[in-house]
Amino acid sequence: MAKAHVVIFLTFQKLISTNCNLYIAGLFTFTRSKFMEKQFDILPLNDWLPIENFPLVISGPCSAETYNQVMDTAHQLAAIPQVKVFRAGLWKPRTRPTTFEGVGNIGLEWLTEVRKQTRLLTAVEVARPEHVEACLKHKVDILWLGARTVVNPFSVQELAEVLQGVDIPVMVKNPLNPDVSLWIGALERLNKSGIRKLVAIHRGFYYYHHALYRNQPMWEIPIELQRRVPGLPVICDPSHISGRRDLLLAVSQKALDLEMSGLMIESHCSPDNALTDANQQITPVALTELIASLVVRQSKGDTAFETKLEILRREIDKMDAELLDILSKRMKIVGEIGQYKKENNITILQIQRWSDIFYDRLNLGSRIGLSHEFLVQLLQIIHEESIRKQEKIME
Ligand code: PEP
Ligand code: MN
User: Fold this and answer.
1) What is the pLDDT of residues 18-50, one digit of tens each?
2) Which residue's CA is the nearest one to ligand 1's atom 8?
3) How far apart are the first and last CA of the chain?
4) Which domains can be identified in the chain, with CATH numbers?
5) Which pLDDT score, from 0 to 100, does residue 30 have?
């Protein structure tokens, strides 16, 4: 059993089980558009931010701190061909109130200088309508909504209202929690206000347990976002995912391999002295090295490659059909067992039997190269469905 086709199956399984009104497989033909958001009107990134030097990089300090820090960093970044946009936080949403909360409006004047003195566009995080108004007054090129703002539909709505009818690109970071609908909702509110130059930024998801990453990447979430909102450009923010410099390259590479549209990477002329996010910021020189180390892969290969790929994909298609067929047969037998239990007044779940199945299949699967984590999830999902099926029969 190849891993890839089980993953496809699981995605499909999730899809049908979360849309219970459509859970009448066999009577229903699912069309692609049933699972896509159709209300979006988004301009392709290339229409308003053409990329001459791949990959597109947005860079600059986590926070603007001083005029000199902003100008020094911006001038160094302007020498990197891939960097098109200079980012800087002016109003910082901090966890604790005693830490640096940004320089505020004065920073807009520094960014005006960046626009005058370099070829870079400017981008600022906005969280309040006043921030938007101030940015528009100072002709900031691009706005973005931070992860802490996107969790709150009231805040997003206020921003969408003040942006009604304004022609400015807006980037929307994912909310702190891994909720793709909340992310889509924020994008939708802005799109309904007429913002067509829309971008999503994947910055990872808060996890209470401190692990390798500062924010878990959970790559399946931005992938699901792109599936549901086709044509939406997604840029990865490896800085806030990693939280530390040594992970930036691997996360950036992964983002490119997943065909994301660009990278937002925090940089600072003196990162160790940064007032916010010091551990993850890098110098413009380190950014140049990082970009040079990235392997740029094509999304399509030559004819021989495409032919071979096509053959392998056909095999996967066939196996998926077999896999679904086996599962359907398995569920039919589960149904028969349910009926038999009902007639004999026996409970649905016999813990001992489930425990035996679980360990037996875990061992079986491990012996043929399936990972423990994958098997646990697969067995659980099949078992849950079996119980659901028998519960229906008992009713
Ligand atoms: C930032 O970009 O500096 C920032 C505050 O990011 P996030 O909203 O992703 O935490
Ligand atoms: Mn930051």
Assistant:
1) 443 344 444 567 777 778 998 899 999 999 999
2) 146
3) 35
4) 3-34+306-394 (1.20.59.10), 45-293 (3.20.20.70)
5) 74
